Amino acid sequence: LRADAKFCDECGTSVSTAATTAEYKQVTVLVADVVHSMDIAAAVGPERLRELMSDLFDRCADVVARYGGTVDKFTGDGMMAVFGAPVALEDHAIRACVAALDIQKGVGDLAVDVRGRDGLDLALRIGLNSGQVVAGELGSSAPSYTTVGEQVGMAQRMESVAPPGGVMLS
Fold first, then answer.
1. Per-residue pLDDT tens over the stretch 131-167
2. Is a pLDDT exceeding 50 seen at residue 30?
3. Which of the residues 53, 68, 124, 164 has an alpha carbon 20 to 30 A from that of 77?
4. Residue ranges in 67-131 assigned as alpha helix (H)
5. Do 116 and 157 meet the contact criterion of CB atoms below 8 Å apart?
6. What is the C-alpha to C-alpha distance for residues 101 and 6, in angstroms, rounded to an integer?
């Protein structure tokens, strides 16, 4: 490639890097995690666990979208969502707080079903933190939009100290 090339001369593919598409954003990060997920997994097995997590995360994603947030990622038993990126929201903190409360309400409804069918307690912990992050594409082989920075780690810490069924914010 030429030193100043923006596209490959042979195939026309962009040679831009993920770092050039990232930007600073003021956001609120929401981190949710299932309480005692390993115990639940051991009790119900992988197929039922997949059903539970699928239903749970569908409900969570619907609430996040309703309040203008973006689901950043799902983990085996958790979720991270961002309010204020990629689309800036002046009231991102309020939206995230209300979304967290609505998620807990929806999980409460699902927990009743899980208690009846599986005899297990299902609960989420949710942590929230607001501040500046870098948001954009991360990775070069399979880039994905995400947010990184100290504020993400603080939201995870807030989740870890939240009571089961509760929301903790910084």
1. 999 998 887 666 788 999 999 999 999 999 999 999 9
2. yes
3. 68
4. 92-118
5. no
6. 46
Backbone dihedral angles phi then psi of residue 95, each to the nearest 5 degrees: -60, -45
Establish whether the linkage from the previous residue to 163 is cis, with ω within 30° of 0.
Answer: no
* Calpha distance 104→142 (Å, rounded): 33
What is the C-alpha end-to-end distance of the chain, expressed in Å?
47
Residues shown for the chain: 170
Nearest-Å Rg of the Cα atoms of the chain is 19
Return the pLDDT at 14.
73
> What global pTM score does this model have?
0.85
Owner of token pair 């539970």:
52
**Residues 94-115: tens digit of each pLDDT:** 999 999 999 999 999 999 999 9
DSSP 90: T
CA dihedral 106→109→114→117, nearest 10 degrees, is -150
Q: Residues 127-155, buried b or exposed e (16+ Cβ, 10 A)?
A: bbbbbebbbbbbeeeeeebbbebebbebb
